[in-house]
Amino acid sequence: MANSGSKLFLAALAGLAAGIGVGLLIAPTKGSKTRKRLKKRIMGIADLMQDDLAEKFNAFKTALTSEQKEEFSADEPFIDVKEEK
């Protein structure tokens, strides 16, 4: 059953790629103009993804540092391993 689902997904992906290719070939604008527009859209999506990834990374970093601060709070005594020897 899973094999059938993966075949269906690959077929849909191939159909999508073929449709995009045909759409670009029969587009009413010049190829250079189409490539510029496509590049602009892809760069816009890449910028959005980069901003989103940076935002998530900063949130993770903040959560991690606050978790570490809670773990080593001032209420608990800090024992140095070197002092025990």
Folded structure, characterized:
Helices cover 81% and strands 0% of the residues. The chain is elongated. It has helices at 2-25, 31-71, 81-84. It is mainly alpha-helical and 85 residues long. It has one domain (2-71).
Keywords:
elongated, 81% helix, 85 residues, 3 helices, mainly alpha
- The helix content is over 70%
Number-wise, the strands total: 0
SS-based structural class? mainly alpha
Radius of gyration: 26 Å
Q: Please, how many helices?
A: 3
Q: Could you give the distance between the termini?
A: 62 Å
Low-pLDDT residue spans: none
Major sheet attributes = none
> What shape does the CA trace take?
elongated
β-strand percent reads under 5%
Number of domains: 1
Q: Return the string of H and E elements.
A: HHH
**Mean pLDDT value:** 80
Describe the structure concisely.
With 85 residues, the protein is mostly helical.
Strand-helix topology:
Elements: H1 2-25, H2 31-71, H3 81-84
